[in-house]
Design a protein that fits this description.
Number of strands: 15
Distance between the termini: 48 Å
Strand order of the largest sheet: 1-2-3-4-5-6-7
Largest sheet: 7 strands, mixed
Helix content: 25-40%
Structural class: alpha/beta
């Protein structure tokens, strides 16, 4: 059914203006340019940016996230090998530019761009701040808590559970396939970007992931926004638990440091990994420490 995978690196281009600068070093993913089926007409696509999810069946097409304009065009080319149908819904998991910069490539071929209401507000705010409003295609449909739609034999359900990686992250479930796109609510063995400027909250993020573990099962395939080198962008409920543990251990270690009278700079000098979650390594722990310290000292 899927005739080939291809590899094509693209530049960040103008879309990087819409990406938080702190996240630009975190764009490594485990595969590049791979249009990969998982099961029951649902799969994922990787190129440059946050992992894209897709569904193509006889009744319609759904795409989750759009990366950057160049990689979105690559994805559209792969979809066109399967169907001439328009995209029913382009769903944005949140507002960051490595997930929404490519929206504009779908302008003539999608019926709707869909996101949480906070995600749309964040997209508009950040684009205006960075002078990149002309390069955006904003959601024309939003929701508050839960939304479902039936396309062929597949039911797509999006749900919102409060502040996490940002204040607008959603979870998308392809119910028949039992595949869940987590967006950036899971960084698989990679230090996460925690966007306090857009309402991120680690404490509630942990609650979201706890709820996710209870809601889904061992058969569920999860698609993650990003992964560390050598790790996959798909996984199981055990990978969700592992990332939950990372966030819990992060908060515990930073809280211990604060109680011991250590400053944020002290913690940054001392901590290269989080005890109890050693698989999270490489560059980027400073972002986690900044966010955890702010949350524990300022309550936000």
């Amino acid at each position: 059914m899927f005739r080939r995978d291809f590899i094509k690196f693209t530049s960040l281009g103008a879309a990087s203006l819409f990406l938080p600068p702190q996240l630009i070093p975190a764009l490594n993913i485990s595969k590049v340019g791979a249009f990969t089926p998982l099961r029951k007409n649902v799969g994922f696509y990787t190129d440059r940016g946050g992992t894209i999810g897709w569904m193509v069946n006889d009744e319609g097409v759904v795409v989750i996230d759009a990366q950057f304009p160049e990689s979105a065009e690559n994805l559209i080319g792969e979809i066109r090998k399967q169907t001439d149908q328009k995209v029913n819904f382009l769903i944005n998991t949140h507002h960051h530019g490595d997930h929404t910069g490519g929206n504009i490539a779908f302008k003539e071929m999608t019926e709707h761009v869909f996101a949480h209401e906070n995600s749309k507000a964040n997209q508009m705010r950040v684009a205006k701040e960075r002078g990149n409003e002309e390069g955006q295609l904003y959601p024309d449909m939003t929701f508050e808590e839960e939304w479902s739609n039936q396309i062929g034999d597949e039911t797509i359900t999006c749900s919102y559970h409060g502040r996490g990686h940002t204040n607008g992250d959603i979870i998308t479930h392809f119910e028949n396939a039992n595949i869940v796109h987590m967006g950036d609510l899971v960084f698989n063995r990679r230090f996460p970007y925690i966007d306090k400027s857009a309402g991120a909250h680690i404490g509630n993020w942990i609650h979201i992931l706890d709820h996710t573990v209870k809601r889904f099962d061992e058969d569920t395939i999860f698609i993650f926004g990003h992964s560390g080198e050598g790790f996959e962008i798909t996984g199981s409920i055990e990978d969700v638990k592992a990332f939950t543990n990372y966030l819990e251990q992060l908060m515990l270690e930073v809280e211990k440091g604060i109680e011991a009278g250590k400053s944020l700079q002290d913690l940054k000098k001392e901590m290269t990994v989080v005890k109890g979650a050693p698989q999270w390594s490489g560059n980027g722990i400073e972002r986690s420490l900044d966010a955890a310290y702010m949350e524990l000292t300022e309550g936000e």
